[in-house]
Amino acid sequence: xxxxxxxxxxNDLDVVLRLEREIFSDPWPRSTFVEHAxxxxxxxxxxxxxxxxxxxxxxxxxxxxxHLTNMAVPTRHRRKSVAKQLLEYIFxxxxxxxxxxxxxxxxxxxxxxxxxxxxxxxxxxxRQPNYYRRPVEDALVMVRYFDTDEDxx
Length: 153
Ligand SMILES: CC(C)(COP(=O)(O)OP(=O)(O)OC[C@H]1O[C@@H](n2cnc3c(N)ncnc32)[C@H](O)[C@@H]1OP(=O)(O)O)[C@@H](O)C(=O)NCCC(=O)NCCS
Fold this sequence. Notes:
By secondary structure, the protein is of the alpha+beta class.
């Protein structure tokens, strides 16, 4: 399913927050999305089809480091490559900024997301004990490296 990807706006927040609460046991509050939208190191994206939000993602870029901090697709729209398109968009931004890597955390119990990230070139970096709340769980920290060799330009 081909989606349109654009920056999240304040008008999207009611829908995004509803999805966030449906999808995650420890959802981000509205203030987190608002703060991120106002900060230039952050990217906040929505994926849309015919005006319906079918996914969203948040990341930040700081120097050579980039971090994927949130990504979600409502159940009824999964396995249609929505997350793939969001991730590819972010890969484009990360490459433009010449970041060396994109890092993320995922719950070990979240096998869907783990499989999705592995498919897209992320590898296991380390395990962070008790990283998550509600429920408390370790995080698997995963990383994908990018070739920033100037000679390739
Ligand atoms: C992880 C998530 C974002 C993937 O979104 P999606 O739009 O369904 O992903 P895509 O359709 O782009 O990619 C699907 C691929 O991911 C992997 N994958 C996704 N769900 C899977 C599952 N249940 N079992 C095995 N592989 C799975 C497969 O490689 C799959 O490819 P396939 O459909 O050809 O087999 C989605 O499952 C989600 O929102 N989960 C809940 C929120 C979440 O966990 N976010 C990440 C937090 S770190």
